[in-house]
Write a structure and sequence with these properties.
The structure holds 2 protein chains of 2 kinds. By secondary structure, chain A is α+β, with helices and mostly antiparallel strands. Helix content of chain A is 37%, strand content 12%. In chain B, strand 2 and strand 3 form a beta hairpin. By secondary structure, chain B is an alpha+beta fold. The chains are: A alpha+beta, B alpha+beta.
Chain lengths: 622, 172
């Protein structure tokens, strides 16, 4: 097999058993890697008892998977997955960085991690040397301190393994902060201070496994490819086009904080009470002043859309983060009523340090602030805090409480959906009306009410990754929005380095690397749909703490049916009859019945009889 | 003898490591970051240091080599490694004030930048992407003294961020 290292590591943290695993060619041809392969592995290993698997139990799997294109196609991602403590389904959550390259150079395509370590640990991989090491010294530590410790320690370990090699480069690493250790449902898996895999909540899954970090160093080359010349030709061609992609190169998504508010009216503001603003203090140029590096990227990246922001003096001295990118501008800024770049950079830095997902964490802070605004939560219930909109200090304190599950933070750490249920129950109120989330996952910072942004009315409601703005359902061909994301998350590719590429061009690259021909029709009509059905089945099976109702829960949050109160699109909202029409159309496109349950004939056509059987047994298919 | 050398502007390095890709493709015919003669160190995320031969005055590495495996190219001024004569003793690493030479990850000989015989692939890769962290200059204009990755990281992080943060991040 070309493009693949050909081996996976299967690590049981409970017994400390470390084994190698591999998958037959046919299975890899169907599921590729990353998200697709994660769906298959999870279904095979946990599908039978999906509803009873607690995402924070040792039984859950933590998957870290590359794909055949990882390291070859410009822009590098790795996909993290498992049963999600947010949706109780499965999310393929991607993160940029060198991890996937180092892993493949070490000779592995991915990691399948199960069990729970007896005490805080980290996994250290240097080529064939795989070790579960003690992480007690850094348990409780934040991002920067964790990185410092692991770089120092690992470089020493690598020197020991390769005496006389010369200076050893640092390994790549994925780690968690206190938010993950404390098993919050809003924790990200973090890398390089400022990269995160947030959707899905796998930081908490790592925490539940007593796994502080995974460190990998590979000394080998990337695997052989099928057609070397063609791979290089396409690498050059794709790169050339990316070099000319001036907007992302210059700004990344850092102009979004103004653009998605002012131009498209689709930015979460004060917990989505508004989606429009004209805060000129939040323009890209105002962030640019804090950038100490204007082009920052990961292995192979031709775009370098990240920018390194650093605060040199004042109250927030020492805060460091990337850009912030648009999602952080929105959720750690506008959504909290903050429109000051310095404060936004500080809160983004803090979220990264704590290992809080910027989106899920920011959403739950905004939710709490709205409850405070409405007098539903008083300062006595908030540990004396008064989270007024725009008060960065109060939000910083609240973020710490969430990450450490202190006081009200313990409830908020459950994420907006569960916090709304829990607080609503104790207060006898329906608080879900203030929870802007989809099936347990706070919605990405792209609203659908104005109709001017890239998400559609059904995008989140019908997505198998729910609130994830990088995997949007669409009523185009075969629900191609999600099908395209499944290819990207499986292969793996970065969206921002392949922005203007046609699907056929990615498939050409895939063919050059693997030697396998895959047509657009096969992908959209068959293979992507297979992954989609498995993810849908997992989402509907859910459990153990919550199960989604087919059809009824495929809906927008109540707030999206309130008319926009301000801006050029004031009055616009999601129209329910249009939404229902589009949802019906989507269900048909992807082979689901009128309640959104995969039809038996769909499953059989795709060879997913085990999914049909399980859904019948669970009473979801009657 | 003059020759050429590769000037580096560390603050301009995006960390894309496309220099490592270009170098290893040229020398190894594979994408192989550890076999690259230019290696990007990232001891502090965001502070990426492309590390490669500084072409010191007097070439202490070549002087330290007991087996005559290292020589200086009369035209380019690059250090050439004759792999078959290299015993992998590592004395050149210790002699190098920047600790630049490293062992080939698979074969037991040292690797050092050979300037691709005058047209370095890393420089081209960096220029193509318009980062220009690596630039081709006459050897006589050599400016930066050779330093170790850690020393360079401390220095560059001190400028990009500030000295206190740099020391704290690096743990020194």
């Amino acid at each position: 097999m070309r493009g693949y290292a050909g081996r996976f590591l299967d690590i049981d943290l409970s017994s400390e058993a470390i084994k190698e695993a591999s998958f037959p060619e046919g299975l890899l041809r169907d599921y590729i890697g990353g998200r697709g392969l994660a769906a298959r592995i999870l279904w095979d290993r946990l599908g039978g008892e999906w509803e009873s698997v607690d995402p924070f139990s040792p039984e859950n799997l933590l998957l870290v998977l590359t794909g055949p294109l990882t390291g070859f196609i410009p822009g590098t991602k790795v996909c993290i997955s498992g049963k999600s403590p947010q949706s109780n389904g499965m999310v393929g959550s991607t993160i940029a960085g060198e991890f996937g390259v180092d892993l493949k150079c070490a000779g592995y395509d991915g990691l399948i991690i199960s069990g729970r370590a007896e005490h805080p640990s980290y996994i250290f991989i240097c080529d064939g040397h795989v070790e579960i090491k003690d992480a007690r010294a850094i348990w409780g530590k934040r991002g920067k301190e964790t990185v410092r410790y692991l770089v120092r320690r690992s470089v020493e370990d690598i020197r020991g393994l390769r005496p006389g090699y010369g200076e050893a480069k640092e390994p790549s690493m994925l780690y968690i902060g206190p938010a993950g250790e404390n098993r919050t449902r809003v924790a990200a898996v973090v890398s390089k201070y400022a990269h995160g895999a947030g959707y899905g909540g796998y930081g908490g899954v790592m925490g539940s496994k007593n796994l502080k970090a995974i460190v990998v160093k590979g000394f080998g080359p990337l695997p052989e490819v099928h057609d070397f010349e063609e791979t290089l030709r396409l690498y050059g061609e794709f790169s050339k086009r990316s070099f000319e992609f001036e907007e992302f190169r210059r700004w990344g998504t850092g102009r979004g904080g103004y653009h998605f508010g002012f131009d498209t009216s689709s930015e979460p503001i004060r917990n989505w009470q508004e989606e429009w603003h004209d805060m000129r203090s939040f323009r890209g140029e105002e962030f640019d002043r804090h950038w100490v590096k204007k082009y920052w990227g990961d292995f192979g990246c031709p775009v370098t859309c990240l920018k390194l922001a650093y605060i040199r003096s004042g109250r927030f001295k020492g805060a460091i983060c990337d850009n912030p990118d648009y999602e952080f501008e929105a959720y750690m800024g506008a959504n909290l009523g903050i429109f000051n770049p310095e404060e936004n950079i500080y809160l983004s830095h803090l979220a990264n340090e704590l290992g809080l997902c910027g989106i899920q964490g920011g959403a739950v802070l905004g939710f709490a602030a709205e409850l405070y605004q409405r007098g539903i939560l008083g300062s006595e219930g908030l540990g004396g805090l008064r989270p007024e909109w725009g008060d960065a200090s109060a939000f910083a304190e609240l973020a710490e409480m969430v990450a450490t599950r202190r006081g009200i933070g313990d409830v908020l750490a459950e994420g907006v959906y569960r916090a709304a249920l829990k607080l609503g129950q104790s207060k006898g109120l329906d608080l879900l009306r203030y929870a802007v989330q989809e099936k347990g996952i706070a919605i990405g910072a792209h609203g659908v009410r104005s109709g001017e942004d890239f998400a559609d009315n059904i995008s989140y409601a019908c997505s198998v990754q729910a609130g994830d703005h990088t995997s949007l359902a669409s009523i185009r061909e075969h629900g191609s929005g999600e099908a395209t994301s499944i290819l990207y998350d499986s292969a793996t590719c970065c969206t921002f380095t392949t922005f203007d590429l046609e699907m056929e061009e990615i498939l050409e690259f895939y063919r050059a690397v693997t030697g396998w021909r895959l047509t657009r029709e096969e992908w959209y009509g068959e293979k992507a749909l297979r992954v989609l059905q498995i993810q849908r089945a997992m989402l509907l099976l859910g459990g153990p703490d919550h199960r989604w109702r087919p059809g009824r829960d495929d809906d927008n949050p109540p707030r999206f049916y309130e008319p926009l109160p301000s801006g050029p699109y004031k009055g616009r909202t999601v129209e329910r009859d249009l939404f229902e029409r589009d949802r019906r159309k989507y269900y048909q496109l992807v082979g689901w019945d009128e309640d959104g349950v995969p039809r038996p004939e769909t499953l059989r056509r795709l060879g997913l009889e085990s999914v049909e059987k399980k859904l019948r047994k669970a009473g979801i298919i009657s | 003898m003059d020759g050429i050398w590769i000037e580096r502007s560390y603050e301009a390095c995006s960390g894309c490591r496309r220099c490592e890709v270009a170098c290893s493709l040229h020398h190894e015919g594979r994408i192989w970051p550890e076999a690259s003669r230019v290696r990007v160190f990232m001891l502090i995320p965001g502070v990426e240091i492309p590390h490669l031969c500084f072409q010191c005055e007097g070439y202490p590495c070549a002087g330290a080599c007991p087996s005559g495996a290292l020589s200086v190219d009369g035209e380019t001024g690059a250090v050439k490694v004759e792999a078959s004569r290299c015993t992998g003793c590592g004395l050149c690493i210790d002699a190098c004030p920047g600790r630049v030479p490293h062992m080939h990850p698979l074969r037991g000989h040292i690797v050092i930048c050979d300037l691709c015989d005058g047209d370095p692939e890393c420089v081209k890769a960096c220029r193509l992407g318009n980062w220009n962290a690596l630039k081709l200059k006459p050897r006589s204009g050599r400016a930066s003294p050779p330093k170790t990755p850690e020393a360079l990281t401390l220095e560059v992080a001190g400028r990009l961020l500030d000295e206190e943060t740099a020391r704290e991040a690096l743990g020194v």
